[in-house]
Design a protein that fits this description.
Length: 261
């Protein structure tokens, strides 16, 4: 599987990691980016937050003297063999913590309409075995993301978050003939999905949203507005890569576990 790794620069650390970060000497003057693995770079305009698995292990890994990436150790290891870090095969770990410690951290989401940054929030269904363990949230076009932000906004105390972190405006990114200008909320309603735990229905909704978005979608926003998604997708990806905000991340064959089984 070939993903695009999106670099979300950390603007302000959440309370639970702040001290650890400031007491880590090797991070002085180093920019840290959370790396989200996506198959849909064309939807980055609609990012409203970014998810980590609260119980998963994460680390900060040194790329070079100026940059470090935050992801699962498993993903860092894969990156080390894809010439993403300075020295092939090496992925020096500068810090480690659980995803829960990152909640509330403010990051810059490239291309997002939310220019002041978006928050790191918990998503129970993030898989440790896929991508980077960091999932950028596009609730207009990803049913999983829509179900999760809806749930987070319903129970902010339970999740120990500020309600408004889960309530950034959701804007239309892609129009399709079957699902209108926001596929995810449309499909959540259509398939009567009540919670992020509704696994089978969400897998179905994801598949439908992928197909319709890719084959029938038209961009509603950005440099490639009015263009077919099929054509715009590689162009948005290229634009992000040229700006140094994204890179190619490959998932080794055979290790991918799909949620639909
Ligand atoms: C932004 C985005 C916008 C995504 C969208 C999807 C959609 P796949 O096909 O199963 O490989 N993802 C990435 N890593 C994980 C993980 N570790 N655990 C759970 N979800 C993960 O799925 C790849 C997509 O699943 C990625 O692309 C990411 O969410 C999420 F509008 O990034 B995506 C209809 C889907 N729409």
């Amino acid at each position: 599987q070939e993903y695009t790794g999106i670099k979300l620069e950390v603007l302000e650390w959440g309370n639970d990691v702040k001290e650890l970060i400031s007491s880590t000497k090797e991070l002085e003057g180093v920019k840290v980016y959370m790396v989200a693995a996506t198959l849909r770079p064309e939807t980055m305009y609609g990012q409203t937050c970014c998810f980590v698995g609260p119980k998963l292990d994460y680390g900060i890994f040194k790329v070079n003297d100026k940059e470090a990436y935050l992801c699962t150790p498993r993903a860092a290891r894969n990156m080390a063999f894809q010439r993403i870090f300075e020295e092939e095969g090496k992925f020096p770990q500068l810090a480690s913590f659980q995803g829960s410690a990152l909640i509330g951290t403010l990051v810059n989401a490239p291309l997002s309409v939310h220019k002041d940054g978006v928050r790191i929030l918990p998503m129970e269904t993030v898989l440790a075995t896929k991508g980077t363990g960091v999932v950028t949230c596009v609730p207009s076009d990803s049913p999983d993301d829509y179900a999760t932000v809806t749930d987070l906004a319903k129970k902010p105390e339970y999740y120990k978050i500020q309600k408004e972190w889960a309530e950034l405006e959701i804007v239309p990114i892609i129009k399709t003939p079957s699902y209108g200008d926001m596929s995810a909320p449309f499909l959540i309603k259509e398939l009567k999905i009540a919670s992020p735990k509704d696994k089978d229905a969400l897998a179905k909704a994801k598949e439908l949203a992928y197909k319709e978005g890719f084959y029938q979608g038209i961009m509603l926003i950005g440099d490639y507005k009015d263009m077919e998604v099929q054509k715009a997708k590689p162009l948005v990806r290229e634009k992000l890569m040229n700006a140094g905000l994204a890179f190619v991340y490959n998932e080794p064959e055979g290790k991918v576990i799909s949620r639909s089984g």
